[in-house]
Amino acid sequence: MESVTCTERIVNAAVRMILHFVARMDVKDLKRLPRRGPAILMSNHTTNLEGPAYYVFIQPRKATALGKEELWRRWPTRFFMNLWGIIPVARGRVDRSALRAAFDALDCGYFLGVAPEGTRSRTGALRPAHPGVALIASRRPVPVYPMVHWGMREALRNFTRLRRSQVTIRVGRPFRVRVAEGTEPGAALLREITDEMMYEMARTLPPRFRGAYAAIPAQAPRHLEYVG
Q: Fewer CB near the terminus (10 Å): N or C of the chain?
């Protein structure tokens, strides 16, 4: 996670140009993000393109993200992962090395991208999330921004038919996770916090994409404190 190189500037510009060529990109909501971190950006996950889109459009902010370690197995994706300083995560277990790297990134003032669902949604609707994002947010009480998108899956299909689709990115209300000082959240509490965080993401999405989090509770969340 170093300063931006000339190579990265060229690559980022090329990726932005390609995305605008493939789809009509509505990214104006990203202006709601502060110019500097630290912060957690939690996103829905429907394709392999939203991560690169987020990264190149939030520049010049210092940013990294958690990415599945399989992305380092093939040279094309490995090139981008290394260029952008993405943190590899071993799926299916608690990856303490990835957690340490995530904490270090936040401590250094980076934006940290996290896709709590862990794998792509084949329907575009939210899937049940893993508690890793709650663990990170409970140990580092930085602002968390629900950052969602829709239209990316359709854009990929329609581009093969020589049609450009609308892709929309929205940023929800930021919050911090609050737990009692000195408390180490257990599995049940992390599950509860995770669900509250995901409901904030669901609020930012159109109802048809809320999936497992469609039944948004009427009461205020117990473990989240809104900021800004």
A: C
